[in-house]
Amino acid sequence: MARDIAIDLGTANTLVFVRGRGIVLNEPTVVAMNERTGDVLAMGNEAWDMIGSAPGHVVAVRPMRHGAITDFDVTERLMKLVLGKVGLSRFMHPRALVCVSSAITTVERRAVEEATLSAGARTVHLIEEPMAAAIGAGLPIDQPSGNCVIDIGGGTTEVAVVTMGGVVASRAVRVGGFDLDDAVQRFLRREYGLAVGERTAEAIKKEIGSAYPTEDEPKAEVHGRDLATGSPKTVTVSADEMRAACEEAVGQVSEAVRGALADTPPELAHDVIERGMHLTGGGGLLRGMGARLTAETTIPVHLAERPLETVCLGAGRALDSIKTLKEHGVLLS
User: Fold this and answer.
1) Full residue range of the structural domain in which residue 264 is found
2) 3-state secondary structure (DSSP) of residue 258
3) For helices 289-297 and 239-262, angle between their N-to-C axes, nearest 10 degrees
4) Cα first-last separation, the chain
5) Rounded CA gap, 146 and 66, in Å?
6) 217, 245, 273 — which closes off a domain?
7) What per-residue confidence (pLDDT) applies to 57?
8) Is 106 a member of any domain?
C-alpha cells in the first residue's frame, strides 16, 4: 500500500513528512553537480557543505528561487533523490501533497506537479504555504473567525488571513531570508570593501542581524577577502549596521503585513487583533522580527513553536483530509 507524503519544497530547505513517521527529511534545497559531465554528485547537507570549497568544475545549484522552479531538470533529479532518501524504493509510488508559494504562476505550479510526478509520485496535490502554515500552527482555520499567519521563507514572504477554510486577504512578496543574506554581502562590499561568501553572510545574519533594536546589541568579527588587495581581511561589524543593511528587505515584509491587514474585513480584523498574528518560517527567527511587526501594526505577534517545520507539519496533517480539503477549495489541484 502506498504511503502518503507531504513535501515542503522550499527555496532554502526541503522537508518531507511521511504519514505515520512524521518529518523524516530536512535538508538544504541544494544539488552539487559536475559541470563537465552533468552528473549529480550530492544533495542536501552534503551539497551544502561543498559550497565555496569544491573544485571549480563542481557547482552547487539551487533549483528553487523565490519559491519557483528555475531549473526543471535539476529539480526533477532533486525530487528523485529526496524520495529515495525517505525510502520510496521500499514501497509503492506515494500520493504527494506539495506546498507551493501563493506568489507563483500557474505555469510554475504545473512545473512543480510535473517534477514530482516524474520523480515517482503516483498523484500530486498542491497546497499554498500560508494555508499549510496555518494548519501547522494549530489555528482553527475551519471556524468563522479570522486567523493571520505570516510565513517568511528563504525566497518569499506570505501573509494570509484565513477563515472557514479559505483565504480572505493575502499578500505575497518575493523577499525572504536569502535577500537578507544578499543585503549583508552588499553592505560589506560597499562599506568595508570586503567580499564574503553566502554561508558567511548567513552566519553573520544569525549572529547579529536584527529587525528591531534590542538592549546590549552584540558585535561580530567578519573574515573575508579585501576587494582592493585580494588579501584576507577582518572587520568588526555592529548589530546596528546589520539592521540598517537589512532594512529594505524587512521593510517589504512589514509592508506586506500591513497590506494584508488593510484588505481584511472589519469583523475578521477584530479577531486578528484579539488573537494576534502567527509568525512561521526561518525568516521569523531573525532577532526582533516579531517586535518590529508589533510596533508597526500594534498587534501581538506569536512565533510558532517549530517555525522551520510549521509548513511541512501542516501539510502532513492535511494528508488525513485531502478529499475534504479539495472539496472546499483549499487545495490547488
Assistant:
1) 138-175+248-305
2) helix
3) 50
4) 23
5) 27
6) 245
7) 80
8) yes
Residue 38: is its pLDDT beyond 90? no
pLDDT the model gives residue 111:
87
Q: What is the pLDDT of residues 111-134, one digit of tens each?
A: 889 988 888 888 999 999 999 999
Here the cell at position 161 is 488571513
Q: Are residues 142 and 288 in the same domain?
A: yes
Residue 22 near residue 316 (C-beta atoms within 8 A): yes
Separation between Cα atoms, residue 177 and residue 152, nearest integer Å: 7
Give yes or no: residues 88 and 220 share one domain: no
**Mind listing the pLDDT tens digit for each residue in 297-320?**
999 999 999 999 999 999 999 998
Dihedral of CA atoms 247, 248, 252, 257 in degrees, nearest 10, equals 10
To which H or E segment does residue 186 belong? helix 177-192
Cell 549583508 -> residue: 184
The mean pLDDT value for 19-46 works out to 87
CATH of the domain at 43: 3.30.420.40
Q: What are phi and psi of 196, to 5 degrees?
A: -130, 155
Distance in angstroms (rounded) separating the CA atoms of residues 198 and 265: 41
3-state secondary structure 52-116: CCCCCCEEEECCEECCEECCHHHHHHHHHHHHHHCCHHHCCCCEEEEEECCCCCHHHHHHHHHHH
